Amino acid sequence: MLEIGRYNELEVKKLSPQGAYLQSELGEILLPRRYVPAGLQQGDRLRVFIYLDSEDRLIATTQRARAQVGEFALLTVKEAGAIGAFLDWGLDKDILVPFAEQNVPMRRGERHLVRLYLDKSERVSASARIDRFLDNERIVLEQGEEVDLVIYQFTDLGAKVIINGIYSGLLFKNELYGRPGIGSRLKGYVKKVRDDKKIDVTLKKSGIQGLDTSRDRILKTLATTGGFLPLTDKSSPDVIAEVLKMSKKTFKKAVGSLYKDGFIDLKEEGIEIRGSREK
């Protein structure tokens, strides 16, 4: 079934001076000549993005859209017009965010996190009203489950995040390592699903798994810095978070474990892979 606002694989029915006509259940769709790959032949199958042009006709392109319908993306405002804001999403035709779908007036050059959808005329549009696309009524998540997170709003408690493109959750401020911004994509874990349908998430695995992850991160960072890191138990939490994306408490626990197992040495000025300076 043809999906407007998404990638589709279609067969080339015929070639013409205007371009390639692709076969679909809704009829032939033109791939304009400027997008036709060299050597394309009748009968070939081609992956194309389908949307409506300025005259509401189905059109195909081989340009790469930064997001498809149903997805979230951080996009730049190219122009603020009389009917809304137009954002750059990688295609020749910019995508519209109507005024009714803006949380605050959008201005040229700004970047906003939006969700792509089809309007009543099946034109691809975008909305910055993220919450209305998230549904916490039927939560199918388990405590400790790994999830994909996208930050979409900051609050006094921390950051509101999109979970797996479906749910809304909260990442508490003490876990916002490295100053992530709106649209930042992170790997996280379900900390708790509350009775009121709210979801708390964390960036740390629980128990021994979390410790193993922190140990691995320290060792991998050491491997890229010549075997030495100028971090100690006296380093500030902000510096540790900036370098290793973990809390000072987690850092101290992981360092203690690595030292006990003989992987690192503790120096007055930092930590060092054991034997890294031996000749």
Automatic annotation (TrEMBL):
Signal sequence, renumbered to the chain: none
Top-level division of the source organism's lineage: Bacteria
GO MF term set: nucleic acid binding
Residue stretches making up the S1 motif domain: 3-63, 68-129, 142-204
Family (UniProt): Belongs to the CvfB family.
Designated name of the protein: S1 motif domain-containing protein
Organism field: Geotalea daltonii (strain DSM 22248 / JCM 15807 / FRC-32) (Geobacter daltonii)
